[in-house]
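User: Can you recover a sequence for this backbone? Please restate the input before giving your answer.

Assistant: Of course. Working from this structure:
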């Protein structure tokens, strides 16, 4: 029972990461009119956000504590994912994509 909430978070993060790998490029290509090069870079941008988030995670965990960081980063990931989906502008959508990567990094 103790691990069930963490398992649920891990499943959610895996679904988001898989969705970004499979659908982010297609979404920006079809819905936002991005060119093929930009669409191909979507997952790389998301992965760069995860990389940078993980790079600084130990320092942030030391300051905030793991449970608090998990709550904050989960909310940030949800907000940035929403920005990615509802933004009519490609630049804001890509910012949301990057921010979602940062949010789910930890």
């Amino acid at each position: 029972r103790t691990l069930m909430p963490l398992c649920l978070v891990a499943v959610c993060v895996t679904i988001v990461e898989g969705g970004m790998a499979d659908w982010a490029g297609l979404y920006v290509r079809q819905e936002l009119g991005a060119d093929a090069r930009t669409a191909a870079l979507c997952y790389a941008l998301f992965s760069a956000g995860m990389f940078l988030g993980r790079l600084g995670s130990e320092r942030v965990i030391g300051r905030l504590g793991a449970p608090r960081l998990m709550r904050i980063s989960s909310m940030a990931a949800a907000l940035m994912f929403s920005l990615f989906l509802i933004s009519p502008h490609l630049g804001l959508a890509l910012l949301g994509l990057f921010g979602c990567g940062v949010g789910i990094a930890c």
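That completes the design. The helical segments are 4-30, 36-55, 57-64, 66-86, 90-104.
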